[in-house]
Batch of 2 targets.
Target 1
Amino acid sequence: MATYRLDIAYDGSAFRGWAKQEGLRTVQAEIEDALGRLFGAPTQLTVAGRTDAGVHASGQVASFSAEKAPPEDLRRALNALTPADIAITEAAPAAPGFDARRQAISRRYRYRLLLGPVPSPFERHFAMHCSYRLDRGLLDAAAAQIVGTHDFTAFTPTDTEHVRFERHILDAGWHGPDPGAGGAEEILSFEVEADAFMRNMVRVLVGTMLEIGTGRRDPDSLGTLLSGRPRPEAGETAPAHGLFLIGVRYP
Amino acid sequence: MATYRLDIAYDGSAFRGWAKQEGLRTVQAEIEDALGRLFGAPTQLTVAGRTDAGVHASGQVASFSAEKAPPEDLRRALNALTPADIAITEAAPAAPGFDARRQAISRRYRYRLLLGPVPSPFERHFAMHCSYRLDRGLLDAAAAQIVGTHDFTAFTPTDTEHVRFERHILDAGWHGPDPGAGGAEEILSFEVEADAFMRNMVRVLVGTMLEIGTGRRDPDSLGTLLSGRPRPEAGETAPAHGLFLIGVRYP
């Protein structure tokens, strides 16, 4: 058996997320189907970040084991077998025993906001349109508070299956505004890197920071929320289509 | 009667082009429907550049006349009434008699190429994937030859309805590569500005230059083509989804 690493990008718009679910279109199912055809045997992927329905990825990583030797250009073969909303950006043998999930040190996400009063046909699937005024100073101060080790109970659904709600945030900050896909858009991005994330965590962090940035929420309340308050005390869950998994770090 | 100017962006993927056609989804029909509802009377748009099916615009301009006073925020009202693949980026009263088509001095188009072997889920509707090697020197030299006044008979379908095949090219050149929508892509762009364009003209120019850039066509043949040769002597028509109308110039 050999171990392989895949680097993957996908437009999450038409997927019910990464994880395989009977009868639903998922990224995992599409790539495992392609691998099964290529290696001639059922192949199971281990993934660094299980993204939710509608969430995109430009830097997802997955690993798998397979018996047969891979085709000479594994990446090209996989791209030919997967649909156009998935791209395998790298595909190669990895160190024996490489596990994309367990060996990941951290995951990095980006949440994109389209600023200003005008919607964008080119960004409508890739950024949340935010037409109200945001106080950048308040946003930056909120992001800075998130860095460190906190209890994120308030930032994941109450029915979540996690047993440990502490996460270690290595980096969090707002970037831009930068031009968007049509050239004229202003895109403000929140980037956050952590050892691991819980379900909806980035989206609830963004939703809560937007309430702070518009003056609807006391900036000081964030520190309290990060000490393990219940979910209803935090803000709205920002929509899935603004979120991208942009990278995974390994030792 | 008052005259109005609209600046318009659209994702052309799901439209049969700009111009209204019975029973087909077009940009003109969608916006005229919205204007009709807003002004309470049938309203006809005059457009700077009639884009073909699948072609996008970030800087389209159209004008219309209407009797009634516009709502206070015309842009906002129109964006609420048009579908999400159209955005009205500006909407305002214009000088009396303003005509978006006749008064335009020039139109500017951009054709986007995704370079390299890896496809992109984020660029699949907005750039032609070009995985073969291109000689940038040959591309630049070809673009430089296009500038000036030439007979573009070779660059538009033979069944075209034009009576005059001369066009004056004010600017033509390759730009980038720049990062694409997913961040990792390399996007090479051809931009061209002319007094007016014929049907498919930018796409045949790009298709012909790609043959030159890959060494499949003699670079010197371009000068001959620009002197009024028949359509079959030029290159393939590059796909519609890489093309954007990015701006229109007025006095």
Target 2
Amino acid sequence: MKLYDFTLAPNPRRVRIFLAEKGVEVPMEQVNTREGAQFQPEFLAVNARGTVPTLVLDDGTVLTESVAICRYFEETHPEPSLFGRTATQRAVIENWNRRAEIEGMTSVSDALRNTLPMFAERGLVGAPDGVPQIAALAERGKAMLERWLGHLDARLATTRFLAGETFSIADITAYISFETAKRLEYEVSANYPNVVRWLGEIAARPSSSA
Amino acid sequence: MKLYDFTLAPNPRRVRIFLAEKGVEVPMEQVNTREGAQFQPEFLAVNARGTVPTLVLDDGTVLTESVAICRYFEETHPEPSLFGRTATQRAVIENWNRRAEIEGMTSVSDALRNTLPMFAERGLVGAPDGVPQIAALAERGKAMLERWLGHLDARLATTRFLAGETFSIADITAYISFETAKRLEYEVSANYPNVVRWLGEIAARPSSSA
């Protein structure tokens, strides 16, 4: 088994935090996406989209999606559960993980990739031959991030974590979206006190340094 | 339990096909998104983003994401399995379902919502107060759809279904993306023979009429 990782990229960090919460260690290889290593022939032969994280299992199975990689480890290392145990818990965690992706990560990614000079011809992840930036999409991403903060703050007024009283993968996804937003010099404002409370709690977990 | 549905919208159809494959019947209520019913106060009180499908469980739990709704029914009605049984199967299905969403559904949705006059101020789903269309994003969506077809055709040259030899939720997601693309008068070309073969097989299943 090998996990292709890059310490400075947000999606690989989602997996590293997940593994830290599980106490699982996996052999890793760095793919420096700031130097274009993900678009070299050796790595494209593993993952044609050139994205990290990528997990290769011993039987040759290749997983290219962060949550699919996490699900593999949830199945093989069930404790502590980060995807839920009952039908309702599993559905609620899936629901909030997806909202954290669709409303949170996508908004931040749209804003970041269509703004920063380092992504000038890489407005979309997973496109080895390049995609131009779209300025209007960056603006839309910023507006959608504020909307997400409103929804998230209302949710966290009633629950300790995104999916209820127990930490889950949904918290990892949402946390990483705000960590990523720092690259836009964006800080969550005091207008969202429940999000600020929750961010402090997640940042205090040992896994957050992964 | 109640499932808020709309027969003409793509994401509710993903859930209806999933339920048809399971042989499960659920009480449904139509929310006519072409007449703006999803943005009426009664429905926004259930789901503040105004999206369908939405499932409300008997205990009041609200699920607003198609795959979270499907996962609930997978847990409560395990046969036939559409999310996989072993750790590797579950991870591979998650992987291809996500690729079908990220590379397929998102590409089609970007193209459709930023092109059709009926979405003039609704360039993004789940935004009750409106989002302008971005013409460049529609073009990017069309380009990304071709890229996805290349990846999918290569995959389906080696497997019967997206995630292997067994039909799964990943096939439903990918099928619906191409069904939705028909609204752009888009048909999958013979340049992708494996996709054409697979599309015919999915369309022949009784569930496809759901």
